[in-house]
Fold these 4 entries.
Entry 1:
Amino acid sequence: MTDNKITIAIDGFSSTGKSTVAKQLAKELSYVYVDTGAMYRAITLYAMRNGYIKPDSFDKKALIEDLPSLHLKFIFEESLGFAAIYLNNENIEDEVRTLEVSQYVSRVAAVSEVREKLVAQQQEMGLEKGVVMDGRDIGTVVFPNAELKIFMTATAAERAGRRFKEMKEKGQDVNYEEVLKNVMDRDHLDTTREDSPLVKAQDAIEIDNSALNIEEQFEKILQLAEAKLTTTNK
Ligand code: DC
């Protein structure tokens, strides 16, 4: 075999630029890119729309009961250059990116039944390999045997600054303090939840990109992927 495909898992804290590099990598290698955060966001949006989750309450039971009827899929969109997320045939790509969804998503992602459903779908999507998947538990739970595992970090202030700029550019009405608080709250919830907390897999390569620009980060990870591909195809 000379063209074995590998599985690439990119995990890390929120707003570390995981998705940017994962998309670039998938394009370069002609692999499929899967944004697992979007899947947790989609379920969160559904819970919000149905009034299951509010600032002071969360009807988990109602959400769990509805899970079998929720169908998620990604459809590649030429204009975006990546696949948009759909919930029951509705394109919700823009709606899942709001700060409101970000504020609730860690609580929804802590529900084991939600994780079970999404992990199963993610494993199915990666069955054929040739996939770059980003998230929090890809190298630890979804694909513990992934050939290449990257764990991305950057300071909270750096990440909040990037997220703030991105949201402003999209015309969203946000302030920096609010975004920083969200980044820090999510770090806490994501790393302390009982089911599949965010941890670096033992065999993951950690990359702190606080001082790297997008090109430098991409080059570094592409080199790691190419080195893996060379050894896999020997
Ligand atoms: O990557 P993101 O910011 O879009 O992810 C949104 C939330 O979803 C994040 O706060 C934690 C959760 N998540 C998760 O628990 N497991 C994943 N594989 C991906 C995301």
Entry 2:
Amino acid sequence: MSDRLHTLSGYFHEYQKSVAQPEEFWARIADSFHWKKRWSKVLQWNFEEPDVRWFVDGKLNITENIFEKNLYTLGDRPAIIWEPNESHEEVRTLTYRELFVEVCRFANALLSKGIGKGDRVIIYMPMVPEAAIAMLACARIGAIHSVVFAGFSSSSLADRIQDCQAKAILTADGNYRGSKKITVKGIVDEALEKVSVETVIVYRRTGQETFMQSGRDFWWNEVLEGQSEFHKAAEMDSEDLLFILYTSGSTGKPKGVVHTTGGYMVYTKYSFENVFQYCPGDVYWCTADIGWITGHSYIVYGPLLAGATTLMFEGIPTYPHPGRFWEVVEKHQVNVFYTAPTAIRALQAFGTEPIEKYNLSSLKVLGSVGEPINEEAWHWYHTHIGKGKCPIVDTWWQTETGGIMISPLAGITPTKPAYATLPLPGIQLSIVDADGKELHGNSVEGNLCINFPWPSMIRTTYGDHDRCKQTYFSTYKNKYFTGDGVKRDHDGYYRILGRVDDVINVSGHRLGTAEVENAINEHPKVIESAVVGYPHEVKGQGIYAYVICDMSNRSEENLIQEIKETVSKIIGPIAKPDKIQLVPGLPKTRSGKIMRRILRKIAEGSLDAMGDISTLLDPEVVEKIKAGRK
Ligand code: 7RM
């Protein structure tokens, strides 16, 4: 691959070029793709609106760049290897040629159900190849997919269906997760009591009994019957929407992050190849769920655009035993392994015995994503999984950035534990202080911003452009604000310090504190609540909820249990608070603002240094909360 960086000096050289002449830089990379019509202008932008357009007037289909472009050379290479929940169940391998046929057939099936260009389609599915086929089939016909993580509750699902006015839902009967068999279609049915869609297509995974509403619900295999194995790709504009992905922010309602076709295609392939230094024939495994951006960019689009073999795993790290990941690595001779710090820490707790049973010598590169990786976990990963010989790429990025922004290039950039190191060429970072003043030079700490557009950046928040502007482009003038704190050390290396807004990161899952509070407040006995994150050994952050309740005729224990269930029902089990403390009041200022700083301190156990609490309406409440700390 000609766009590929191979040396550190090459990296610095390209980086300089990308800043000095960004349009030339990106045009050269974009020219290696297949465009039905080349762009007339590489980039048009302003961050005020924001209005950012890449490869203006370019026409393409992203799936043609996965299939048609590569078929002659890659046809028989495995595109997707699927490892099921149970190790004894049959592995499925789809070559590029086979995957192409499945995508075309499903694209034709979607069209036959009246789904077409511009329609929004919700994908609510387990980790099966059909989930990827569904995404690619949408892209093939120009429908806009919105994948919803299958762990979300029916009301979260209903909110998303409503927000994007989805025409169809692609789903499955059930889902195997470790020892559990979970109903999926049942949750869809619950959501569809509140909102409606025209069509539901159901993939049979578990074979469990499933309600099907006639005229609305169809079995996957039935809609595929008789469909042609070819579909001519829809011609899309570079800036046509490719997908919407909902993500949590500091307000209550998750927002639909919008990504568009041309730029997302260019950036995901570029970043995939350079960060992981993927070589043809390598087996690459990203353990994320396709319901998150990591699954979109680095299970499906990035690897497939690069002609890689991408492994999809249905199961969980600890089932049926804590060596399951390493069993899969050995079984499929995985070369590149990309996971989250929370998984590493969870497996670290089982010691090295589960690892020693397996031969991990195929591994060449390890990756980390989703949250800061602590030094201890980094060293454990490096020593016990990488056997000291695999570079670790600690990749910092966000749903909004679409692809990896800061990361070592495997084997090229010298790594440093817990550091995401340096930005990819094309990514212009800045660190600003609270007043928005840019901090130049090394050994500085502040808020992380991006000063210049990149091809896979967020274009808008679906249906509410002003929210996009307010959230990302208004805090600091002419900069995209990430919401993360960061340090640039004496070497110029970046270390991400975590969120500086009201977003918490639980096991790599993003949640807004307000979102969790809203769910807690749904419990009829709850009067008010305040949620903060606190350091958690395995999850990175845990959820600590302070709740004021009407306690009449209720035991504390029952209430706490019920509140947890309420949250699980409203958002999903991932948002269930780890600790709930019933409190007599909350530390509020005279103007009624909750001082979360104090609540965070108490939750993390630093009970002495409370700072200035004189502005509180009732400073005594702090002592009471401290006394009842969980
Ligand atoms: C890819 C993803 C984004 C937030 C982001 C950070 C945190 C992600 C790292 C990280 C430290 C990392 N998208 N984050 N990667 N923090 N080091 N390598 O996770 O939209 O779900 O979350 O995750 O706070 O803002 S996301």
Entry 3:
Amino acid sequence: MSHQANVLIFDSGVGGLSVYKEIEVRLPQLNYTYIFDNEAYPYGELEHDTLIQRVERLITQLVSEHNIDLVVIACNTASTIVLPTLRAHLNIPVVGVVPAIKPASNLANKAVGLIATPATVTREYTHDLVRDFSQSKPVKMLGSTRLVDMAEEKLRGKVVDLKELEQVLEPIAHHIDVAVLGCTHFPIIKSEIQQVLGEHVVLVDSGEAIARRVQTLLELESAQGVGVREIYSTAPPWEERALNCALAELGFNPVLHFHLAI
Ligand code: DGL
């Protein structure tokens, strides 16, 4: 590869930025294009086929327009169903993120909590992961779109309401000693989740494993220099001043509008 690699990171919202951070810290020299599909957000409530078709259209267009070398589907809800289709249609590596059931089960003595979107907790893929890797430890699942919204709001400057968070997590709170953050939005509110569940609960996410995978596929070491960072959303990003401030801290210019071709 003669140029610095162009990496595309994709999510329905700002959640994929938690994965971007893990990759970027290892490989700052690469060029990153981040896209969030806020026009179709939340993915956790989309129909199966609608989601597959939409992600395929978006990614195919982006890959050809931005000369992409590697795609990261930084969304558990999408990855648990779209990866086979994308890999069949693209001739570049596609890395996905799925709930970290295996490492969590290795750590658990009591039970694992899987916190994800309503769609991810019902996916066959997720149930297969539990069957194959939970080592007979009980896995208690909690699907919540409100948690995803809370992460979106936090990145736009709103303080997380801990009382509300406590209510959302209540069904699993006192029964687990390890929790899987099975949605890329949740590392954004990790400190608040930790506060509510208590320090005795270990929180596990897939971000670092994804970053290692990207590094292995590109066969690269960290190098001097910082590549180009661009961020797009599918809905016109008006009134996103607070978000743009948070994005500036991650090295991005203000959000641009991505036009999905008909
Ligand atoms: N960040 C996404 C995930 O990892 C989903 C958020 C949504 O429901 O749109 O599953």
Entry 4:
Amino acid sequence: MSTGESDTIAETPVTNRKQPFPRGFLDTISTGWAERTESMPAARPQAAYAAARRAKVSESFPGKRLVIEAGSLKQRSNDTDYPFRAHSAFAHLTGWAADAEPDSVLVFEPTDAGHDVTLYFRERADRTTTEFYADATVGEFWIGPRPSLAGVAADLAVATDHLAAFEAGEDDIALGDADLDRVVSELRLVKDEYEIAEMRLAVDITARGFDDIIHALPEAAKHARGERVVEGVFHRRAREDGNGEGYDTISASGPHACYLHWTRNDGAVVPGDLILVDAGVEADSLYTADITRTLPVNGRFSDVQRKVYETVLDAADAAFAVARPGVKFREVHEAAMKVIATRVAEWGVLPVSAEEALDADTGGQHRRYMVHGTSHHLGIDVHDCAQARREMYYDGVLEAGMVFTIEPGLYFQIDDLTVPEELRGIGVRIEDDILLTEDGAVNLSADIPRTADDVEAWIARVQKG
Ligand code: GLY
Ligand code: MN
Ligand code: MN
């Protein structure tokens, strides 16, 4: 928290826990520091990709001034903030990701030839300023050194200027504008090589996190809030090897697995139950994985758990089988839902036939057991490309370079009287991250075991080792 801009004893505010800085401190604090030396970095690998993306945005808005804000720190409570995370469009268009500075602004200034682009940010303060020692939010004494204008310009290969030089204009187009949001969202529908490499990295770290979870399952089963043990183990991996989680981990054991976004994670992990874990590591580039595995806590699926699990797996495989360039995004979902509807109808659970349930206008009875979609685009946001037009997304055609999830599930709530008792309280989701290539679909998360037999063998292997 800032203690103010003053530099005299009289003007330094006194709070209920802070004392003014005495004259001796003020007279000496700015001196005695070694000269700063800074060697200029080479441009980071994503800089060239970010420049190509900016060129596309520029083409879409001739003559317009565009303002892309990184966003600001968000207050958690009193003088504590949430960790800063730059807006995805800002990170995508600058390549400045986990290390981006709050309040930065990327400005496209229109010229005859297109746009001149400048990145404005709060450069580190000189050591003669009060900010240096007295500003707990941005001061170097408190949060560590911030980068220089020249350093960031070299690192990101973009012109930079001090934040104080930025002036908003009346006709600026900023994020929140429908056209700009759509353009920067649709720009991310097809990933470039850099993005695909980062998605692979995020999936690899997430795979390690799932190994950690399996290793910790016996410990989780002994803890009253075993779901938190699982969440914590994954968090450690996410922070050690990446920037963190791309979204709040869902650690849902037993009947909690039927609550789609169970992030309270305060339940027990009981041997004999399944635990559904939906977790993804966000790499330092901010690209995130989004993976779900449903694991038998004691290492073995019961017959009924296996029956549900293998149905979900069949649905996922059916969706994967149709995913290729030229197919509509919605066809992937339809393939999965056909399996779900057919199987639950066979189990005698539906009040109508599978064909009737699959009727787009009058059916949908099977969706009681899988209310969510099968797929979403994935990238720098877990639900990427959120402002893309429907005709480019759900009704759009798949192209090489797209990355999306396939994540069918079946969820039988503990108090659902429409299903036999043996199914109640069972929730299963299997979620993989898919890259489309010209040759078809590649499952980026295929190395994380998926079949019931492979999951059992995985648990046995990790817990033995
Ligand atoms: N983890 C959120 C989702 O799967 O969409
Ligand atoms: Mn997902
Ligand atoms: Mn997920």
